[in-house]
Amino acid sequence: LVYWIVEALVDQSHESYPRGGLNYLCRGLGCLQDARISVILDHHTLPGVQMAGQMFTGNCTSDVQFYTSYNYHRALVWTAVMTMLTHLDPNFGSVFAIEAVNEPIMNAALTPNYGTFQKNFVQTIRVVELTLGIPVLSSGLSVSVSVSVSNNFTAALDVTSSASIFTAEVQSALADAIPILMEIGVQYSSQSIFEASPFQQPSHTSLMANFMDINWQYNNP
């Protein structure tokens, strides 16, 4: 998947990409679910470009900018939105994993703070799932949803994501993802999915956080 499938993430001052991809994704996932095919949402094209000279990045350039705070943040917002859609939109019912980054630069010395991004990627997925009441047994994380917000998913996520057990970057990404989710609901007439009460999904299985094999990167991966 491309990052601009979440259209609010596009920096229109210098980025220009096709629109309407999320609608096609939902339709395609619905077909795959009908065919009982399991799906990994692979973040194939990252904001800022993750690998030089590759057409799959959406911008075949030598100017690699993904490995910056700004673009790590945009990727985490994308992750939060995709996690929310996966657990709340029935079209995403056959999705079992989200991959953080397709083919990062192979030399880890050239990808500063990429390891921190990967940890935040996992936390971003888990805080959404914990808010939804989905068991995440291996994470060692837990949150509680107060009664005052127990019938409103976005309000509950706003509260749980501010818990001190999550990093400031994860908290910031989730805060930015919430209005994007609501905008998607309006755009695709799917507000009812995100406003359903009760919203918790304890019968769902936590998603697999997927990464390239550790041997993809050398020099202290």
Our Rg estimate from Cα atoms comes to: 17 Å
The 3D shape can be described as: globular
Helix/strand-derived category reads mainly alpha
Total beta-strand segments = 3
Strand content: 5-15%
Mean pLDDT: 91
Sequence stretches where pLDDT stays below 50 over 5 or more residues: none
Main beta sheet: 3 strands, parallel
Helix content, binned percent = 25-40%
Q: Could you please describe the fold and organization of this structure?
A:
This protein is mainly alpha-helical and 221 residues long. The protein is built from six helices and three strands. The chain has helices at 21-34, 69-88, 114-131, 153-160, 168-187, 191-194; strands spanning 39-42, 95-99, 208-210. It has a three-stranded parallel β-sheet with strand order 1-2-3, covered by helices on one side. Helix 2 (69-88) runs parallel beside helix 3 (114-131), helix 2 (69-88) packs across helix 5 and helix 3 (114-131) crosses helix 4. The longest helix is centred in the middle third of the chain and has 20 residues, at 69-88. The chain is globular, with a radius of gyration of 17 Å. The two termini are 24 Å apart.
